[in-house]
């Protein structure tokens, strides 16, 4: 009798071990199909659209996309906290060490003003003078007699970094700048304040702000691609080491003709033709 009970006990224990192993294996499998993405709010709309399309094609995969800024994207992917980091600026040599970089394409930076502002075009030199405090009234640019309030992004923002590289040239910001902590914060500030001017990713534009020409060149896909609109930067996916498994498949999808069509749709609001701008760069930051 005792022997039978012992055999029964062993059988139950064995069954529990098998069930636990199967459950753990399935759970690990499911987790291995999860992808976490974090970083630049400029790349966020593109990554979200790509993730949605990929998950529709691959129902067993879950992709979680979170915003932040480019610095967070770099730091958190290097620390292993996320699978993919997003950056809207080029990385330094130190930052790129140990990371694979995947260039999804160009993201133009739009210069925006309030809808009530009559100014339609601005030069890069005038932008420098506005944001450094040398031009302080819209009347100096053919606009209304109104004080100019420049709106900039927070430190760590890729858009701010690129604006400083292209426009500021090392000059200090004006004392009256307003700091927005996200792309949408910059949009909202300019939308509700008539004297403001700011900069945002092209893919974030809406009907509540007005986009200025730069050096009399309109921000269009054609002008970005032919190089006449020069205030552009790269959208990067970053991976620690080399992309493998589901992460590699997702990045390859993002850089495929189908993925590029999605990106162009987000950037320019249309089903534009495929332009192969995706470039993969290996670890150590080529």
Description of the structure:
This protein has 286 residues and is of the alpha/beta class. Helix content is 40%, strand content 22%. It has helices at residues 2-32, 44-57, 70-78, 93-96, 124-131, 158-168, 183-192, 221-225, 245-255, 257-268, and strands at residues 34-39, 62-66, 84-87, 99-114, 121-122, 149-153, 178-180, 196-201, 209-211, 213-214, 232-240, 279-281. Strands 1, 2, 3, 4, 6, 7, 8, 9, 11 and 12 form a ten-stranded mixed sheet that branches. The longest helix is centred in the N-terminal third of the chain and has 31 residues, at 2-32. 40% of the residues are buried.
Bin the strand percentage: 15-25%
Helix-strand sequence? HEHEHEHEEHEHEHEEEHEHHE
User: Roughly how much helix do the residues carry, as a percent range?
Assistant: 40-55%
Overall pLDDT level: 86
Total count of domains = 2
Shape: elongated
- Within the CATH hierarchy, at the fold level, what is the topology of the largest domain? D-Maltodextrin-Binding Protein, domain 2
* Name of the CATH homologous superfamily of the largest domain: Periplasmic binding protein-like II
Q: Helix/strand-derived class?
A: alpha/beta
Q: How widely separated are the two ends?
A: 72 Å
Architecture (CATH level 2) name of the largest domain: 3-Layer(aba) Sandwich
